[in-house]
Amino acid sequence: MVADAFVRQGAEPDAFRVKEFDLTKLCRYDIVLVGTYTWMNGDIPKQLHGLFEAMEQQDKTLVTGVFGTGDRCFATYCGAVDLFRDMLHAKTILAATLKVEQMPSADDRKRCGAFAESVLMKYSHRKGMLSAANS
Ligand SMILES: Cc1cc2nc3c(=O)[nH]c(=O)nc-3n(C[C@H](O)[C@H](O)[C@H](O)COP(=O)(O)O)c2cc1C
């Protein structure tokens, strides 16, 4: 749904399962979005620990976003999204976050559209700042 929202707005996203993604290729992307569920006490699932550490090492000019599913019956709703958000805010240009309860609904399609719009706006703003700095 998130990838579709970016396509609808003219972007060309590549989507990977984290275990199929070569972390050394992160630096090839203009924008990196992380999608995660939350595990146990609001934790990041084990499969995403390597990605979390690799994102911490990225250039401060990388535009990022994080989205994920969770369940409000747990004390730390979408805690993994919050943990990524805090790190990405400190280490990258964090554009937007999105939390979805359980299965995405039709309304969440609209929220994915707003998420994509915020990310792409932040990216075009960053591009403008960089070209002004280089001219
Ligand atoms: C053992 C277990 C622990 C979970 N812990 C949390 C949690 O701490 N916070 C949260 O928001 N969701 C928690 N969840 C909910 C999962 O994140 C949820 O299943 C998922 O976001 C919905 O995606 P799914 O449809 O792929 O299961 C937990 C689920 C399980 C099974």
Which tags fit this structure?
Rossmann fold; 3 strands; single chain; alpha/beta; about 40% helix; 4 helices; binds flavin mononucleotide; three-stranded parallel beta sheet; about 140 residues; globular
How would you briefly describe this protein structure?
The protein is built from 4 helices and 3 strands. With about 140 residues, it is an alpha/beta fold.
Determine the mean pLDDT: 95
For the record, the CATH class is Alpha Beta
Helix proportion range:
40-55%
Strand content: 15-25%
Strand order of the largest sheet: 1-2-3
Given as residue ranges, the uncertain stretches (5+ residues, pLDDT < 50) are none
Please describe the topology of this protein.
Layout: H1 2-8, E1 31-36, H2 49-56, E2 63-70, H3 79-91, E3 93-101, H4 106-134
Parallel strand pairs: 1-2, 2-3
The structure holds flavin mononucleotide.
Overall description:
Strands 1-2-3 form a 3-stranded parallel sheet, with helices on both faces. It is built from 4 helices and 3 strands. Helix 2 (49-56) links the parallel strand 1 and strand 2. The chain is of the alpha/beta class and 135 residues long. The model has no long low-confidence stretch (mean pLDDT 95). The chain has one domain: Flavodoxin domain (Rossmann fold). Helix 1 (2-8) crosses helix 4. 28% of the residues are buried. Flavin mononucleotide is lined by residues 37-42, 69-71, 74, 76-79, 102-103. The site of flavin mononucleotide has 16 residues, from strand 2.
